[in-house]
Design goal:
Blueprint lengths: L2 H7 L20 E6 L1 E2 L6 E7 L2 E7 L7 E2 L1 H6 L13 E2 L2 E2 H5 L22 E9 L2 E10 L13 E3 L8 E5 L4 E5 L7 H4 L8 E4 L7 E7 L2 E7 L7 E3 H7 L10 E7 L5 E12 L3 E11 L27 E3 L1 H4 L2 E6 L4 E6 L2
Parallel strand pairs: 4-10, 5-9, 15-20, 16-19
Antiparallel strand pairs: 1-12, 2-3, 3-4, 3-8, 5-10, 6-7, 6-9, 8-9, 11-12, 11-21, 13-22, 14-15, 14-18, 16-20, 17-18, 18-19, 21-22
Length: 347
């Protein structure tokens, strides 16, 4: 991706009128820090973890959906089904509340309390799960629906933020690091962003389905977008391209993307958008986007995982998915309590 995209992402307008700082702009406390590893041939990132003391790699899938483990990893580790949960995460020999002095505990999610489809999905018990310096004991993880995870897909699970959701999240893709931090009370963008930076963008967000949603402007039209670290490519749903933006399949605006097909065998198309603009005055230029009807299936012969990770049973993929082909050039600070994302260029 060109340097123009990176430059455009941090072109913040009108920051001089930012709101006054909140009551406290002191530095947050660090609850846990974890390294990220880049999948070969892709911008996707995995997180090294330990399951019952055995090293595994989980795909970074930031959000608040349940963390999942692959069927193959569960079988390899002989994890028992439907074991009871749970104890708090332990960090550096004590729980995170004691380690940070924040007065915040970290509950571990018992998947049995989830409603809807997750309530009936199979799950397994895990004696210990370690991420960075934090260890949780007697947990439950859902078994991933994706049968290729741990086989043709080179990772053993999906790591979300479900048991760290009381914390803010810093995603430093250039530094290959994710940090979990005590919630900030500050609202001054230049003080919230505590690392060395120039311009800062502030993007409102919501989490209606466990994914990070925001709104963007594409060709002057408002489109709902999902920030998805588990998607290698940025993807637009075909009906948005055709009905909202007026593109027509097979034209220069919506040309076939080689011989790519989605999970239902329908042709995948492509378009390079001259600009995608976010609320708060940040914009991306010359963004290549796949246009498809359904989710993608990973081809074991290919080098990368393409398109949205949403399964084919979930026919309505998001209007627009912003994948790691764009996100890896950004440094994100997700403040859940403020429902804001603070964005700078990757360092």
């Amino acid at each position: 991706m060109s340097k123009a995209i990176l430059a455009a992402f941090i072109a913040v307008l009108g920051t001089g009128g930012a709101a006054a700082a909140a009551e406290s702009c002191s530095l947050p406390s660090l609850a846990d820090t974890v390294e990220l590893k880049q999948l070969p041939g892709s911008d996707l990132m995995t997180v090294p973890v330990e399951v019952n003391g055995r090293p595994k790699q989980f795909l970074l899938d930031i959000g608040t959906n349940p963390t999942e483990i692959s069927e193959s990893a569960a079988a390899e580790l002989a994890l028992p089904e439907n074991a009871k949960a749970v104890t708090p995460l332990q960090y550096g020999g004590g729980d995170i509340m004691a380690a940070t002095g924040s007065g915040i505990s970290v509950p571990v999610v018992d998947a049995r309390h989830n409603s809807g489809r997750n309530a009936t999905r199979p799950r397994v018990g895990i004696d210990s799960f370690t991420i960075g310096g934090a260890t949780a004991r007697r947990m439950q993880f859902l078994i991933a629906d994706d049968k290729e995870m741990g086989k043709s897909k080179p990772y053993d699970g999906l790591l979300t933020g479900d048991f760290f959701k009381q914390y803010d999240v810093e995603l430093d893709f250039a530094g290959r690091q994710i940090n979990y931090l005590t919630p900030t009370k500050c609202t001054d963008p230049d003080k919230v962003v505590f690392w060395s930076h120039s311009a800062v963008a502030v993007i409102p967000m919501s989490l209606p389905d466990g994914k990070i949603h925001t709104q963007v402007s594409v060709q002057g039209r408002v489109v709902d977008a999902v920030i998805d670290t588990s998607s290698a490519r940025s993807v637009m749903r075909r009906d948005i391209a055709e009905v909202i933006l007026g593109y027509k399949a097979g034209t220069a605006d919506m040309a076939p993307a080689a011989d790519l097909k989605d999970a239902s065998g329908e042709q995948v198309y492509g378009h390079t958008f001259s600009q995608i603009s976010f609320a708060g005055g940040v914009a991306a230029a010359n963004v290549p986007v796949l246009i498809q009807t359904n989710s993608m299936i990973h081809d074991p012969r290919a080098d990368t995982v393409l398109g949205s990770r949403a399964q084919s049973a979930d026919a309505r993929i998001p209007d627009l998915t912003l994948g790691m082909d764009v996100l890896h050039q950004m440094h994100l600070y997700i403040v859940f309590g403020q429902k804001q994302i603070y964005v700078t260029a990757a360092r």
